[in-house]
Task: structure prediction
Amino acid sequence: MSRSNNRRGTMALSFGVWLVMAFLLLPLAAMVPMSFSSSALLRLPPPGFSFRWYEAYLFDQRWMEATLNSVLVGTATAVFSVVLGVCAAYGLARSTWKWKAIVQAFVLAPLLVPSIVIAVGTYYLFSFLYLNGTYTGLIIGHTIITFPYTVVVITASLERFDFRLEQIAVSLGATPLRTFFAVTLPIIRPAVIVALLFAFLNSFDEVVIATFLAGPETTTLPKQMWDGIRYELSPVIAAISSILITLSSIIILVTEVLNRRGQVVADGATGRP
Amino acid sequence: MRVGYLLVPGIAFLFFTFLVPLLLLLSRSFYEGGFTAEYYVRILTTPSYLRIIWTSIEIAALSTIATMLLAYPVSYYLIKVGSGLRSLMIAMIIVPFWTNILVRCYSWIVVLQKRGLVNALLTDQLGLTNQPIELVYNRVGVLIGMTHYLLPPAILILYSVNRTIDLKLSEAAQGLGASAWKAFTRVFFPMSLPGVRAATLLVMILGLGFFVTPALLGGRLDITLAMLINNQFSETTNWGLGAALSTVLLVMTTIGIAAHYQALARLGRRVAP
Amino acid sequence: MSTDERRSISRWLAAALCLFSTLFFAVGFARSASAQNTVVFAGWGGSIQAAQRKVIFDNFTKETGIRVIDVPDVSLAKIKVMVDSGDVQWDVAQALGMWIPLGEADNLWEKLDYKAIDANALPKAFRRDFGTGNSAYGQVLAFNRKEMKDQVIAKSWSDFWDINGKPGGRALQDGPRYCLEFALLADGVPRDSLYPLDVERAFTKLDSIKLNIGVWWKQPPQVPPLLASGEVVMSNTSHTRILDLVKKERVPVEIVWTDGLITVDFLGVPRGAKNKENAMKLIAYMTRPDVQAALAKETGIGPTNNEALSKLSDEEKAQLPSYHYQKGEMVLFDNDWWAKNNDAMIQRWDAWKLK
Result:
């Protein structure tokens, strides 16, 4: 009796999960047709079929520059936040400081502050440092809000990490640095990758801070999409999003095929190095 | 403590780029030429502001609960399922990440509006209802939009942390006579709490900061604190009030985090064997 | 691929990423260089600014040799930060009329050089010390002709308030600006005695329609899809959107000019702008009647220069708020009243919405 219950339970779980997945993809079912619409209004069903929005994106220098900027800034931001994040998470996990909770709260603080407050404050500070409109300023601005994410993700992973493994390595003669790269990092690598991904995606999608810190030559893709939001909303943004999701799906599938044993993102192993 | 030094880069970075500008900006809430408590008094004595604060908490709480209820089963399923299907599912989960929040909101509007996809399905195709159901421009729309946005990070955090839980332990418990449900609640779930804690924290904090989704998908009564703050800083030059509102939001979020830690600690104690 | 090979590839990848990021970060100090003889124009972005580039900026460069760099998303908040910190990146800002008096209070604008700018053909209200009126918009009632099934909508706001006589969904801008005026006009206040606004009367009138508003829109681009899809049959909007909707999308939407508000965008120079002289030249150019007429032909944006109207055909004029204002059908929006009362009205509006 309990086995048929189990099977029913598993079927119910599958059904529920796939409902959630359908929910996740539902707005895309609206977005993709709209991207091929001949109308400039975001509406369904589209009155006609047209590639005009894809052309408007791919053949426009401003859009292409903005995309490139977003990719560059996103990558640099991801790398910095993860480096800072791994250091901070590791330091927090290993320390037995009394003030640990306060430091943890401080690291999370940027997530609590509305992004417009961070944007205005940073804009103000950067005015004096002539960092406004520069890539450097934008990277810093984005790192402020992606760094806490990376700490959260890596801390959670370190909570499950058995630090005795490190002690063993040290007792076998490894230096602390070597231990970290050879023992700890491989085990928390999936979390590091998730952190990199989060940081990149957050930077890539971030608009409020970019509106303040980016200049005409360093403008990012979301800022360009929000350009004149007070004035108009064109299906170009649906086309751009469709292209991005296609690209990212291809990248993930290709990565998966190249790593048939499943080591990169979709890993099934229990963390063997 | 040598390990403590690892915290220095992260903390120093946040100190100069985040804390200093933030304090400068927030100081305008009580100092404008002279010390003043007028903004805080105004907030605490205006019923509409208090109502907005309550609405923000409500919306954040509801969407956090909805998100976690949906995310947990999906993450559990991801862990159990084979690596091919897993990659596909992760691709499907990440894909919404790549869509700009504006596009997502407008897509939801097209799906949920009176003559949108859902209502067309219910009325014309399935004949389930005569009148269109109001799914957008109200609280329902806001919750749908926010849950949709919060699901991917919640699922991914839960998955990346909990994937190291050895499923064989649950299987062993079942082999010893426990039902699948008991094996889950007594073995798997307690071990998944660090992931749950991290995910819930992030989702809750994010939920308090939403201003685009409630603005576009919400109705007359769906005003959040983040919306107010955003308007203050973009539309007016009166930053004293905006700064005071931001401080209130910060305090609220901090209290929320503390309460959340308490609640999960208590849950952990009850569920652990 | 063996584990070792895979591991060394990931190591190389990681190292490459770190190296690139550091280099990019360090080199990224390169700002947009201020070339010689430029002027930076901050405007609304989108298709308005695209039209301005096509009709105004490129021709200005041809005539004067001054390069125009145009940036979108102008905001008073940013201007304030720029002026306060001394790093003023914009030379000319397209400002909501209200921003000029608001900015004056915070000392954000340079005094305009009316020797360089010929503003004599502008109505006096548009010739301020710190700003010149440049683009006129009509805040009007728009309705979906097909959905209204040939009902007559001519009285504008009283028709909007007439839920029973003219049924259908309504959308209204989520904010006191314009809505207070609409309420008073619906309540019968004559056009020339609108200001100073009787706020109590306006909110009482708004009470009667509060529960019938289906969508409280926050961003102007929300309105065209709302009207086109039939989600609402009536909404307030700015006239240029309806012109686009009719011309390009062939949606059966119409404007009621009677009792509309005419709002004027001003051009201002943030205090401390780096290219002040060029800024004045650009403003002078944008104030010329032929330039304003060209913009009106392209976008339907109303000119402020009285001489511009004479350069347009009757058909073109009928689409412009300036023309309907001259005919006496519209009310001029009072920027000074709003500059003084905006904060209080916004607070009152939020409180009113929640009751």
User: Anything to note?
Assistant: Chain C has a mean pLDDT of 89. The beta strands of chain C are 38-42, 67-71, 92-95, 132-144, 170-173, 213-217, 234-238, 253-268, 302-303, 331-332. Residues 3-27 of chain C form the longest helix (25 residues). The radius of gyration of chain C is 24 Å.
